Amino acid sequence: MKKVIFTLLLGTIFTFAGYTQTTVKGWSAMDDKKFSKKLAYGKGTGMVAKRVEDASQLAKFDKIGILGFSLYQPTYSDKKPFSVVTPYLTDAGSTFFVDEFFAVSLPEIRDEFAKSQSALLTPDEYLDTDEKIQHYNSVEFEHAKMWKMVGSISNKIRGGRVDDIKGAPKGYKYLLAVNADAKMWREIGKFTGEIELDAVLVIETTFGFDGRQIVLQKIEMALIGPNPVPYNKKHKKYYAPFGPVKGYLEGLNYGFVSVIPPKGGILIAKLKKGKITESHYEGIGAIYGRIAAILLAKTKADWNDILK
Length: 308
Prior knowledge:
This protein has about 300 residues and is of the alpha+beta class. The protein has one domain (about 25-305). The chain has 8 helices and 9 strands. The longest helix has 25 residues, at about 90-115. The chain is globular. It starts with about 25 loop residues before the first helix and ends with a helix.
């Protein structure tokens, strides 16, 4: 692995809980039970299960587009103006790691989806008209006011002096949508139908960094798509009467997973004076492929079980 130089701001000796010497190779070699020990799955069928009338109203997973592959590092700081802040990756650092992870993860996820007869498409594949390209470039997905308020409070609790670190591959949306709110899922799902996809895949990775070690703390994924159950007046009692999700929901979170690595964290790299001295993420693509396969299998099963 080539050595890469980053300009990294080094702050206090604040240390995140869960920094361990567990490696990617060790995690990827685990059997299914141990691998999924700290995997939480959330169903997305609850909003419509009672209103599905036949198989034509079940979610489809033939053509799935990858919409977001985002890296996130929450920052912590003291509120006092003279204090130093938690070490964090610069834009160059976050871009390097998100590009590295995406490059090796995409083929693995494609292969896993293909095994389940689902095609995973990138933007250059599913944006096949000028209209779709324009729509993709101009669309913005917003969180509900309550979600924004909670995020603002969280940032203040963590000091609020430094923005959280964010990264996404060029041409992809930076999204924190897996555990977002129905307003954002509604917008993403509606957009998905408009660009003629069955669903989109959103992936989020949380990093921790203490100035010496970079640790992968969490991977989350979701499949989001258009509401397959059409609007029906007789279902009005099921629609929210007010708020950001008022009325018929054009988009839904079909299913999502959140995975915490063994012992709370997987060592990704060690650094000294901004230089990578050790890298430990060989095989990380297989981890993402494995998690994506679990998500797709569980989500498909939940939707197919509705009519049983």
